[in-house]
Structure formats: structure tokens, C-alpha cells
Amino acid sequence: MLAAILSVSSPARSDTTYQFKISGVDGALRDNIDIYLQKYTDADHTPGLRFQTTLQQEIQTALQALGYYHSEISITHDKATPRLLQINVQAGEPVRISESDIQLSGDATTDSDFAALLATQAPKQGQVLHHGAYDGFKSALKSLALRKGYFDADFTQARLEVAPELKQAFVRLHFNSGTRYKFGDVSFSGNQIAEPGLRSLVPFNHGDHYLASQLGEFNQALAATGWFSSILVEGDTTQMQDFTLPINVALQPERRNIIETGIGYSTDVKTRLKLNWNKPWLNKAGHSLSSKLALSEIEQSVEAAYKLPLASVANDFYQVQLGFKNRDNQDTQSRESNLALERHWLLKSDWYRTASVRWLYEDFVQADQNDSISLIMPGLSYNRTKQSGGPMPSSANRILLGVEVSDEAWGSDASFVRLRSRLGWIGSAGNNHRFVTRLDGGAILMEGLSQLPPSLRFFAGGDNSIRGYGYETVSPRNSDDELTGGRYMATAALEYQYRVKGNWWLAAFSDYGSAWDDKPDWVQGVGFGVRWASPVGPVRLDLAWGLDGPDNGFQLHFALGPEL
After folding, report:
1. Which regions of 347-392 does DSSP assign to beta strands (E)?
2. 185 CB contacts (<8 Å, ≥6 apart)?
3. Does domain 96-176 match CATH 3.90.226.10?
4. What is the structure's pLDDT at 81?
5. How far apart are CA 324 and CA 301, in angstroms?
6. Domain limits of the chain?
7. CATH number for the 19-90 domain, one of 3.40.1790.10, 3.10.20.310, 3.90.850.10, 3.40.470.10?
8. From the CB of residue 374, how many other CB atoms can be counted at a distance below 10 Å?
9. CA 52 to chain centre
């Protein structure tokens, strides 16, 4: 019955819907005609001479919008198919701009952004007239003026004259920007945080020239603090004096307590349950407290961090961290306690610099070693991440460099230097091709591992390491074939992704690396996978094969989160 209905209804629709076959023009002219004729494809119009005249007028309007005023249009059809129309268009000679009189006055005459706009978008003598480009240039002038604080800007003359019989057009645009306004005083209302800290977030000074982008930057800086549930930054146009614009900031405090729960899964740690309890602000100075509880089959941890912003609250702060972790994985059993004092800077170069002092106590069994170790480790790290293109970025790069030092001279049980680095890059070729590369490395400068806890040793293998091998199974082994961890580690990953449809991608990859003490035993994993660009980040499912070593074979990897 369904097949019969479809076979009857399909021809009926084609008989009541107009179809246009256009010849004689292509490119922008053809596209514009298609746009103008879209509204005439339904069955609300009766075939005949009157309808053809209407179509001719619409086509002429579409062509005139692009400067073609001397077109010849013929429309024919077969009596057997009256709704299939053959349209032949001869565009003729276009109208060109004979005179372009564009004048700029006011403070904008010395503004480089206006000079660039005039150089790239202004209608020029000899160009084919394009009404859309003309209107777009006018809008661009007004828009640029508003973004840069020329609030009194207006056209003193705006005329476009067309002489079709002469195939000439005359553009006269005189734009007076007036005086450029400056930022005035910034006032806050509804804030629970002391004003000195908030004023450190203001990216401009009183008397600086107005820029709308700096208001957006200010809004983002306020949002990044996590102190407020509502933020409104706007200019007070009712109080403008002497070409200055006061800025009003209306704020509403964030809740004192925020609790988040979550569940996730990866093949490395299996099912993981999370509970986060955050107190975004504790006092007028903007101190905050965050705590995290994470439970999985192989690892259980609880962490708390107390953050103390400094004078520049967006860029500089102290943080005290306390954490406990229990771990039982492969040949590792450990219970560790961490207490760290950190000083954070956001540098002008977009690098995050962190200086820290960490106390680590770890009671562990690693292979055939049963021990407990106490370490005091000053450290320094640099981290920078850039990306664009949403949760599954089209381009991104990440660099992490860090060092921690321990010495028996200040009470540690061991002396060593631990170096850590991670580099990542994502690039795209068009909309359907992505490339992901990662380099991961580490080194411990000391004579042996006997005085080093498992949390500081190096292991490789797993979702974000060498796929095709189990989580942290690439490692030196003792005589009983138990994993001992290594002093050195180096891994590399190269991945190509192809968009199949929408947010779905296919991936092919090859990973290579090792963790070792004296001499690396390199292993390689290869495979393919599926990627879904979810709203919270890439979801990755990989089928991988290890090609070397005692644990080579098939591995299924599943992960959710950033790729670098």
C-alpha cells in the first residue's frame, strides 16, 4: 500500500511544482537569479503570460543588483509540461562606476583601520556596479565607527546614481566620523568582591580610546573568575561628557556552594565516578576552595585546593593543594599524600608559569620492592595551550615543560632531577581532514630507581600513550617479568582523521615509544578508530594492535576528552 501511495504522489508533486532551467549565465549571476526565483517554485502561481512577465521582472532585478541593466530574457515551455520553464538570459554589458567620490572627515582621517577599510572595500572607478557591495561598504563604515567609539559618525552625503543608458554609475559617499570617544570611569554594582581586585581586570585606563573589543575582553575576564552568576558590562550613554563614555558593570554573586557529579569511562581506568564541591568565593578578597573526589577500579583520590588571588587577580595567584591517592594497577600498589604550595603567573606571552614546593609521602609496593619514601621537591613549569574551532578544534597546539628537584640536603630521602615535557599539535586541511600529533617525554637524573616512588617513575601504553598496549604496561621488567617503571620515557603519535559526515570522523594512527632504564626497547602500535565531536569534546573509540614486545596484540581503547 505504501509503495502504491508513493508511486501516485510523486508524479503529482512534479506536476504542481515549477522547475527552471537557466542558460546563458553562470557564477554569481546564476546564483543571484536562483535566489530571486526560489519563491516561485510552489504551486501558488498559475502558468501563463502574466506569470512569465513576473519572472522576467524578478530576473531583471536580480541582474541589476549586480550591475547588469541591459539584459535580454526569454522564457519558453513545452505545453506538455507547462511548469518546466526554459529561461535564457543574455546579461549584456554591465554598468561600471564612472565616478567614485568618497570623502572621510573627522578623527577617523588618521585612523589606520579606516584607511584599510577604504583600500579594500571602497567602490572604485572602473568596477562593475554591485549594489550589495555598495550597501555593505556603507554598513562597514558605520560598524567600524561604532566599534571604535565614533558615536557621532554619520553620512553627510550618500548617493548612488545610475545612468543605465550610459552604462555608468556615480558613487558619492561623504562620511564624517566626528570625535572619537574615550573610556570614562568604571563603576561596579552588586559585587561581593572588593573593588581593587575587580579593577585589576579592567583592560583599559581612563582616557584610553574606546574599543568595543576591550569591553568584551573585560566581560570574559570577569566571567573567568567564577565569582559571578550574572555579568553586564555596558557604556552609560546618558552620562557622556567631553567625549568620554562611563562604563557601568552590574554583577550578581555566584552561589556560595556548587556541587557537581559525573560518571565516565575509559579503557585505562575503567568506570570513574566524580564528585566536585566548589566554593567560588569565600571572602571579599576572592579566595576560593575546590575539592574533588574520584573513584575508579584502579585509582581512588581526593584533592582540595585553596586559591588566593594577588593584586592582578586574573594573572597571578597562590594555591595550596592537599591530596591523597590510593592506586592498585598491574604490579603497582601505592598510597600517596601530596601537599603543595604553588605560585601561578599568566605571562604576556600567554604562557602559564608555575613555581611550586611539593611534599610527597608514598608507601608502595612496586614489583619486588616494598618501601616508603618522603620527598621535598621544588619545581618550575611552563604551559601554553592555544586552540580554535570549538570542542574539536580545527587547529591547536600545546606545550608543557616542567622540572622538579629533590635533594637529601633539605630532608628528602633521595636526590634527583625529574624532567617532563609534552608537545601536541592539531592541524586541518579544509573542512574534512585533521591531523593530530603528540610527543611525550621524561627523564630522571639519578643513579637508580630504588629510592623513587611509582608516581614519579615512567610507564607507557594506553589511551593517551602507545595504543595497542595496555595501560602503563610498557616498562622495564625484573627477572620475574614484573613491571618496575623506568627512568626515561619517550612516545610519539601521528594520527589522520577524515570527516565522514557531520560530527563523525574516521581515524588512522601509528604510535611509537618506550619507557626504559639503560637502553630503550622501542614498540609500535597501529590502528584505526572513530571520532564523534560531542558538545563536551571528542569521543574516541580505537582498535589498535601492538606490533612489538611481550604484550603485543589487540587492544580496544575508549576515551572522552581533549586530544592533546
Report:
1. 352-366, 369-388
2. 206, 246, 247
3. no
4. 78
5. 6
6. 19-90, 96-176, 182-253, 258-560
7. 3.10.20.310
8. 15
9. 50
Q: Which of 481, 440, 460 is nearest to 523 (CA)?
A: 460
> Cell 498559475 appears where?
46
Residues with Cβ within 8 Å of 363's Cβ and at least 6 positions away in sequence, in order, are 334, 335, 336, 371, 372
Q: Facing residues of 262 across strands?
A: 274
Grid cell 614486545 is found at 549
Q: Phi/psi zone of residue 367: left (φ > 0), alpha (ψ -120 to 50 degrees), beta? A: left
- Ranked by mean pLDDT, the top range of 263-267, 285-289, 311-315 is 285-289
What's the grid cell of residue 468? 595497542
| 182-253, CATH topology level | Ubiquitin-like (UB roll) (3.10.20)
What's the rounded Cα separation, in Å, for the pair 451 and 459?
17
Strands of the sheet with 72-78, listed across from one edge? 19-23, 81-90, 72-78
Q: Of 439, 463, 426, nearest to 542 (Cα)?
A: 463
- Give CA–CA dist 184/169, Å, rounded: 44
Provide the 10 A C-beta neighbour count for residue 408: 12
Do residues 234 and 219 make contact, with C-beta atoms less than 8 angstroms apart?
no
Average pLDDT over residues 497-515: 96
Percent of the chain at pLDDT > 90 equals 73
Query: Strand pairing of 228-235 and 182-189?
Result: unpaired
Q: And the C-alpha cell for 557?
A: 581503547
Torsion of CA 426, 427, 430, 433, to 10 degrees: -50
Between CA 61 and CA 32 the distance in angstroms is 10
Q: How high does pLDDT run on average in the chain? A: 91
Asked if domains 19-90 and 182-253 share a fold, the reply is yes
What is 258-560's CATH topology? Porin (2.40.160)
State how far the Cα of 479 lies from the Cα of 320, in Å rounded to an integer.
Answer: 42
Query: Could you tell me the pLDDT band of residue 5, with boundaries at 50, 70 and 90?
Result: very low
